[in-house]
Specification:
A hairpin with a 5-residue loop joins strand 25 and strand 26. Helix 4 packs across helix 7 and helix 6 crosses helix 7. Helix content is 19%, strand content 37%. It is of the alpha+beta class and 655 residues long. It has an eight-stranded mixed sheet with strand order 5-4-9-2-1-11-14-13, covered by helices on one side.
Length: 655
C-alpha cells in the first residue's frame, strides 16, 4: 500500500471516529499524521512530522513549557527514534503531564500514560545530578509506517532569561516551531545560527519562530558536527526596566557573562594550607615556569573525574565545588578540576583564570549571543611570562599571554590542547576583563608522526621489517588514547590489523609501546615478517610496494559529490624506509617521485638506490581547516593521488 493511500485511509478513520475508540490522539497529532511526505532517499530511517515547543513566562519568572513531537518510522532502523523525553530539575521544576500515542499503519492506536513513563538520570555518568528526565520509549512497539507522537507539560523557574531551540537534528522535519509567550510590556530578541535569519511571527506578546520542510542532514566523512549544520535559534527575553530582580539572569554582553561566572567561581578557588603545601611539593624540583605549570597540571589531571551537581535549577551547575573540597576528596568534574588547578597555581604565584568552552564543536559558540548556555565544558588559562613558549599560548588584550590547558583530558599534556577545542571561541572568566577569545590552533609540526622502517626483502618475496614510530601533539594523543583505552591483547590485535593492511598475512613478533606523557610523546616499536610480500613473476621479476606499512589515515573521501564542508585536522607525517634488496636482483623500475602542493596540504615521495638498499621517503603535511563543499573535488583528488602514490610498485629483475 502506498504512503498516500495510507494517509487517505488514516484521514477517513479520523473522520469516521471508530478507529480510536477513546484513545483519540490530539488534533495536532492527527493533523501531523495526515501530512504528505516529500520524496526521500529509500534508506531514510524516519521523518519528524511535528516538533514544537511553547514556553509561557509569568510575571514572577515561572516558566511553563508544552512540547509536542511526532515522528513517522519509515524502515526498521528508524524504530530507535520512536521515543520522547523531557528534562527537569528536581530542586525547582516538575513535569506536570506526559502522554504519548502510537498510530499503527492499520489506524489502530496505542496510548501511553503514567505507567509507561520512565524517570531516569539525565547525566548517567554523574554520581548525582539534580537534572533528571522523564522518558516514554515505544521502540519495541513501533513498526515501519507507524507514527509515534508525544506531548508533555513542565513547570520550572529559569536561571536565565534565555532559551535555545534546535529546529532539527539529522532527520528531516516537516514542521518545527518555537513559541515564547511573555507578560505585557516584555520583549524578546533572537539570533539564528546555521540558517538565514528566522523572524518571529508576533501576536500580542507571543513570538513564534517556524521552519518547515527541513531536508535530512546526511553524515559525511570529515564533516562538521551536526551542531554546526542544523538550524538553531537563540532567544533572549527582557522584562521592563526595573523589573529584572528575581526574574532570571539577563546578559547584555560577554562582560556580563564573565562577571556572573567570576562571582560563582572566585570564592571557590580559596587556598588552604594543605593545597598550598602540596603545590609547593609538586614544584620543588621545577626549574622553569613551564615546569611548575606542568607539575600542577599533571596533578589536576590525576584527580578522578566525578560529577555531583546540586542546586542546578538555581545556577549551581555553573559553580565549581570549593578547591579545598575537591583536593580533600580527590574527585570533581571539569570545572572542579580547573578550579583546583587555579588555586594550586596561585600557591606558587602563578595567576590563572577559568575558561568556559564548548567541547565537541569548535564552531558552536557564537559571539552575537552572550550566554553561558553556549558552553558545556571548563578548562583553564594560565598567565605566563615571555619565558614560557608553547603552541597553546594566546594573547589577551589586557591580561597578556595566556597558556590554555584542559585539566580534564588526561591524554593531552600541558602545552597542547585537544583538537576539538582548538580554534573555538571561549570565554576567559576574569570579571570586568573577561572576554571571548579564539583558542589556539597548533601548527602541523606540533602534531607530527615520524616513522623509520628497516626491512630485508628476500629473493622469494618474503620480508622482515622493524618499524619505529615517534609521535607528538595530537598525533601522540591519538596513539595514547588507543593504548590506554584497550587491553593489552586488544591493543596488540589493533596493531596487527594495521600492519596487515599494508603487508598481507604478516606475522607480528613484537609490539612495544612507550608513553612519554610528560614530554607529550608516544613511541612504538613493531617487528613483523610476511611470507609473500613481494610477487615473484616468471621467475625473474619481483614486484613490491616500497610503502610497506600504511599510514593511519583517518579520512576517507570516496563519494562523488559532497553537501557539507570538509574538516581537516592539523597533522604532519614523515617516513624514511630503508629496504635491503635481495641478492641477485637489480632495480628495473621505480615509481615516479610525487610532489603535491595545495593550500591545505603538501605531499612528497622520493626513491634512491644506494649500496644495495632502496631508500624510500614520504611526507604529508595537512593544515587544519574547514573547506567549503565546492572544494571537495580538490581535497578528494589530493588524497586519491596520495593513495595512488603509496600503492605504486617497484620492479626488480633477476640479474
Amino acid at each position: 500500500m502506498s504512503y498516500r493511500l495510507i494517509v487517505l485511509c488514516f484521514a477517513l478513520a479520523v473522520t469516521c471516529g471508530p478507529a480510536y475508540a477513546g484513545d483519540d490522539p490530539p488534533a495536532w497529532l492527527r493533523q501531523a499524521a495526515a501530512a504528505s511526505l516529500p520524496a526521500y532517499e529509500k534508506d531514510l530511517p524516519a521523518v519528524v512530522l511535528h516538533k514544537e515547543q511553547n514556553i509561557t513566562v509569568s510575571e514572577d519568572g515561572r516558566v511553563t513549557t508544552v512540547e509536542r513531537f511526532a515522528i513517522k518510522v519509515l524502515i526498521n532502523e528508524g524504530r530507535r527514534w520512536a521515543n520522547s523525553s523531557v528534562i527537569y530539575t528536581t530542586d525547582t521544576g516538575k513535569v506536570r503531564d506526559m502522554r504519548a500515542w502510537l498510530i499503527r499503519p492499520s489506524g489502530q492506536v496505542k496510548q501511553y500514560g503514567k505507567k509507561e513513563v520512565l524517570d531516569l538520570a539525565a547525566a548517567p555518568d554523574d554520581v548525582f545530578n539534580d537534572v533528571r528526565m522523564k522518558v516514554i520509549d515505544a521502540e519495541d512497539d513501533v513498526e515501519p509506517g507507524a507514527i509515534f507522537g508525544c506531548e508533555w507539560t513542565s513547570e520550572d523557574r529559569s536561571v536565565f532569561t534565555q532559551f535555545d531551540w534546535n529546529f532539527q537534528e539529522r532527520l528531516p522535519v516537516l514542521l518545527s516551531r518555537f513559541t515564547l509567550s511573555l507578560p505585557t510590556g516584555w520583549r524578546a530578541e533572537s539570533v539564528t545560527f546555521n540558517h538565514a535569519k528566522v523572524d518571529p511571527a508576533v501576536a500580542g506578546t507571543a513570538y513564534s519562530w517556524t521552519l518547515t520542510n527541513l531536508r535530512p542532514i546526511e553524515p559525511e566523512p570529515a564533516s562538521p558536527p551536526v551542531t554546526n549544520l542544523a538550524p538553531r535559534l537563540a532567544v533572549s527575553f527582557f522584562p521592563p526596566d526595573g523589573r529584572r530582580a528575581g526574574i532570571g539572569k539577563t546578559f547584555d554582553n560577554w562582560k556580563d557573562v564573565s562577571r556572573w561566572l567570576t562571582e560563582l567561581s572566585d570564592p571557590q578557588a580559596a587556598l588552604n594550607d594543605e593545597i598550598a603545601t602540596r603545590a609547593r611539593q609538586l614544584t620543588a624540583d621545577a626549574r622553569t615556569e613551564f615546569e611548575r605549570i606542568q607539575a600542577i597540571g599533571r596533578f589536576a589531571q590525576s584527580v578522578n573525574y566525578c560529577s555531583i551537581q546540586t542546586g542546578v535549577g538555581r545556577g549551581g551547575g555553573y559553580r565549581p565545588h570549593s578547591a579545598a573540597e575537591v583536593f580533600a576528596k580527590s574527585y570533581g568534574d571539569c570545572k572542579d578540576k580547573a578550579n583546583l588547578m587555579r588555586a594550586m597555581l596561585r600557591a606558587v604565584n602563578i595567576p590563572a583564570y577559568m575558561v568556559s568552552i564548548y567541547s565537541g564543536d569548535s564552531t558552536y559558540v557564537r559571539e552575537e549571543w552572550p550566554s553561558p548556555q553556549q558552553f558545556n565544558h571548563a578548562i583553564i588559562a594560565v598567565k605566563v611570562s615571555d619565558e614560557t613558549q608553547a603552541a597553546t599560548v594566546v594573547k589577551h588584550p589586557t591580561l597578556g599571554r595566556l597558556l590554555i590547558f584542559d585539566p580534564t583530558d588526561t591524554d593531552t599534556p600541558v602545552g597542547d590542547l585537544p583538537d576539538h577545542e582548538q580554534g573555538s571561541l571561549a570565554l576567559i572568566v576574569a570579571g570586568e576583563e573577561g572576554a571571548l577569545l579564539r583558542m589556539p590552533v597548533t601548527p602541523p609540526e606540533a602534531n607530527k608522526l615520524e616513522r623509520k622502517v628497516e626491512a630485508v626483502l628476500a629473493p622469494d618475496g618474503s620480508i622482515k621489517a622493524t618499524v619505529r614510530e615517534e609521535s607528538v601533539g595530537q598525533e601522540a594523543v591519538s596513539e595514547r588514547g588507543a593504548f590506554r583505552g584497550l587491553s593489552r591483547p586488544d591493543y596488540v590485535k589493533a596493531i596487527e590489523k594495521w600492519i596487515t593492511r599494508g603487508a598481507t598475512g604478516a606475522s607480528v613478533s613484537k609490539v612495544e609501546p612507550l608513553d612519554n606523557h610528560a614530554a607529550g610523546r608516544f613511541e612504538l616499536d613493531v617487528e613483523f615478517a610476511a611470507a609473500r610480500y613481494g610477487q615473484l613473476m616468471q621467475g625473474r621479476l619481483l614486484i613490491f610496494k616500497p610503502a610497506i606499512v600504511s599510514r593511519r589515515e583517518r579520512i576517507s573521501l570516496t563519494r562523488s559529490a559532497r553537501k557539507h564542508p570538509v574538516v581537516l585536522d592539523s597533522e604532519a607525517y614523515t617516513e624514511t624506509a630503508r629496504i635491503k634488496l635481495p641478492e641477485g636482483f637489480v632495480v628495473d623500475e621505480l615509481p615516479d617521485p610525487v610532489k603535491l602542493d595545495t593550500d591545505f596540504g603538501n605531499y612528497r615521495t622520493a626513491y634512491e638506490v644506494k649500496e644495495g638498499h632502496l631508500h624510500f621517503t614520504r611526507s604529508l603535511i595537512i593544515k587544519g581547516a574547514t573547506l567549503p563543499a565546492d572544494q571537495y573535488h580538490a581535497v578528494r583528488g589530493f588524497f586519491e593521488r596520495v593513495r595512488a602514490a603509496e600503492q605504486a610498485p617497484a620492479v626488480l629483475v633477476r640479474k
